[in-house]
Amino acid sequence: MYPKQGRPPRRRLALATALLLGAGLAAAAPASAASANGGGTGAAPQKAAPQKAAPQKVVSAYFADWDVYGRAYYAKDIPADKINVIQYAFGVPTYDPATGTPGCGILDPWADYQQPYTADIAVDGVADDSADPDQHLYGSFNQLRKLKAEHPGLKIEISLGGWTKSTYFSTVSKTAALRQAFVSACLDTFIDGDLPGGGWPASAGGPGAAAGLFDGIDLDWEYPTSVAGGNVNVGPEDRHNATLLAAEFRRQLDQLGTKNHTHYLLTAAMPAAKSSTQYYELSQYVKSLDWANVMTYDYNVPGGTVSGLDTLFTGDPRDPNAGDWTWNTTGTVAWYLANGVPRDKIVVGVPFYGNQYIRSNGLYQPFDNTGLDPNSLQPDQMPQPTYHDLVDVANIVGKNGYARNWDWFAGEPYLTNKTAGHELASGSVTVPTTIVYSDPQSVAERTLLIKTLGLRGAMAWELSQDSDSHALISALTPVLH
């Protein structure tokens, strides 16, 4: 048995709160007005116009440019009445070694700003006209602009980097000149909206084509000092250079904001647990940010050794890393607080996907995922099915032989099936299967924690992975009220 959905156990929350108080929450006073708006050491004073100020409470979610291909999830499908910030993934840091020039590029021009939309997939039901020489913005960028028009309080940021596109962050952060040139290039492309031309439709792109779309920058450097999904030119100096890069973004955004009478957001996706301080000078780095999106997930992944929970609300003694008290959401929040990050700059991350482990006899057991394909669109073939896959496509949450279980230590759900069938490339197999995931009950725990402790808000990766009924994002919406 488990508690009614949306009402997490008060005892677990009380224990989590006690842990956080012990980590110094009582001493972590709200940031000053300058700090809350992105000021602080190394940044110019912020002169934001009140009508354009940063939101005081945040429910943000990523929208990936590839969503229009996989699930055919478009901007019109975004529940913009349930969130107030969208991070668009991704913009790409670039570097030309021949000229020593940094840049800030478009990941997928077709999806981002070239694809003409038909009326049935447009936010406002109005089709694009590819023959109109005066239309310069198409694709998701144009649809997000329309979405903002319908929801005036909605903010949209461009997220730079990500796991596979953080390649040149280290390089473009090496010197003051490189940092200045890189930030300037990013603001030209995404804030001023100067997009490359020369594609199709012929009118797509050009100077100012996307002006006014993005309200700020979200930095997603994974990770300073570390060769992660593709970093090059990595060095120990990256940790401090990341702080200097954030300060340069803050300086130039504030300078532009003063000119335009607005406040441009600067946020960052940041890692969980004690390892975060390996990569970042936490308190110094966050001074330049409006808030930090803490990725309190991927504690265990299919590349590990046991079928562990992807995200944990509180610790589980069975977890291979249980000796690290920060290896869970509440522990990570406590670590950030203890390292000088103000509570009103902490945004708690929530995954809208899970991990599937086949040939696994339950939680924290050995597994063998041979045959699963990360590129498959079939839930029974992928190592990381989304919540949408589980409830809308496969329909297996507590059904079709999959028992829903609750980990009382960690406060997370998981599914087990002793005789699950999987259609692999090598043929059909029937094997015991464990699937860990997030659901409205576990998400509601984060919501209550955020509201109880006065944190800034919640962040989700990512929108297309939620159910058709928007069940997960709906469980976060109370953060705004």
TrEMBL record:
GO BP term, pick one: carbohydrate metabolic process
Keywords: Carbohydrate metabolism, Chitin degradation, Glycosidase, Hydrolase, Polysaccharide degradation, Signal
Signal peptide (residue range): 1-28
Ligase as UniProt keyword: no
Stored PROSITE patterns: GH18_1 (PS01095), GH18_2 (PS51910), TAT (PS51318)
Domain GH18, chain residue ranges per copy: 57-481
Superkingdom field: Bacteria
SUPFAM superfamilies given in the database record: (Trans)glycosidases (SSF51445)
Known catalytic reactions: Random endo-hydrolysis of N-acetyl-beta-D-glucosaminide (1->4)-beta-linkages in chitin and chitodextrins
EC number: 3.2.1.14
Family (UniProt): Belongs to the glycosyl hydrolase 18 family.
Protein known as: chitinase
Species name: Rugosimonospora africana
